[in-house]
Automatic annotation (TrEMBL):
<protein>
    <submittedName>
        <fullName>Enoyl-CoA hydratase</fullName>
    </submittedName>
</protein>
<dbReference type="InterPro" id="IPR029045">
    <property type="entry name" value="ClpP/crotonase-like_dom_sf"/>
</dbReference>
<dbReference type="Pfam" id="PF00378">
    <property type="entry name" value="ECH_1"/>
</dbReference>
<dbReference type="InterPro" id="IPR014748">
    <property type="entry name" value="Enoyl-CoA_hydra_C"/>
</dbReference>
<dbReference type="InterPro" id="IPR001753">
    <property type="entry name" value="Enoyl-CoA_hydra/iso"/>
</dbReference>
<dbReference type="GO" id="GO:0003824">
    <property type="term" value="F:catalytic activity"/>
</dbReference>
<comment type="similarity">
    <text>Belongs to the enoyl-CoA hydratase/isomerase family.</text>
</comment>
């Protein structure tokens, strides 16, 4: 299995880390359909590629992502689309990207500098961990443009910060810094820009060395548990525990405990 980049997106396998880099700085890394489809393909493939233990998502240039490239999408055809084209298209495009990010059992780390707006904001939200520069800017631009939120905004934000703060971001269009995003619990942590790369790599390395099976199952439990009743979630926890017990990493964890040493997990 190989990971091929496309114009605007670099994809490389670096040991156990799949690195996806938005590389369209001249457009502030606004995501077009080619980039979006490539991200969906790469993240979906990583879920069954046992070499991959963590995904690192970052961007070239001063900004993380200015959202969806509306101009490029509008230029797809010189004919006016049929009524309902957006409703038909989104499940296979931006919505699918958010879904595959939350569905894959591979942990995802997003690294944000500069502006992160619209879909760019939602990539940070859908990642399992987002580390950002303290002066990064997060913004939901929908009200300023006269349309409604998309790509999971109204599902992701309330789960993280509740309705009151979600209204401030989505309905009033307030901008927040990386430092405020960390304070609100939207992202994992904020760091001064000159410390961000080192902090991000430490987190990526920590996840790459973790017990991969247990880590992925825990991600699955956290993503699905919010919509389930207590008994169903307890059932899922029991099933996940049964699978984790069968992993080599579990055996290594027990051996390390017995031998009073650090565990050396291999992701198996």
């Amino acid at each position: 299995m190989s990971y091929a980049g496309v114009p605007g997106l670099r994809a490389t396998l670096d040991g156990p880390v799949l690195r996806l880099t938005l590389d369209r700085a001249d457009r502030r890394n606004a995501v077009n359909d080619v980039m979006l489809d490539a991200m969906v393909t790469a993240i979906a493939a990583s879920n069954t590629d046992e070499r991959v233990r963590v995904i690192a998502l970052d961007a070239a240039g001063p900004d993380f992502c200015a959202g969806t490239d509306l101009i490029a999408n509008a230029a797809r055809s010189d004919r006016k689309p049929r009524v309902g084209s957006t409703q038909r298209r989104l499940p296979h495009k931006a919505n699918r990207l958010i879904a595959v990010m939350t569905e894959t059992q591979v942990p995802i780390v997003a690294v944000v500098r500069g502006w992160s707006t619209g879909l760019g904001f939602h990539l940070a939200l859908a990642a399992d961990f987002c580390v950002a520069a303290t002066d990064a800017r997060f913004w939901e631009p929908f009200m300023a443009r006269g349309f409604t939120p998309d790509s999971g905004a109204t599902w992701l934000l309330p789960r993280l910060i509740g309705l009151a703060r979600s209204r401030r971001l989505l309905m009033l269009g307030e901008e927040i810094s990386g430092a405020t995003a960390a304070e609100w619990g939207i992202i994992h942590a904020a760091h001064p820009d000159d410390e961000l790369s080192e902090a991000a790599e430490e987190l990526v390395a920590r996840l790459a060395q973790a017990p991969t099976v247990a880590l992925g199952l825990t991600k699955w439990l956290l993503q699905t548990g919010n919509g389930l009743d207590r008994d169903r979630q307890l059932h899922n926890e029991a099933m996940a525990l049964e699978l984790a017990f069968r992993s080599d990493d579990f055996k290594e964890g027990l051996a390390a405990f017995r031998d009073r040493r650090e565990a050396r997990f291999r992701g198996r």
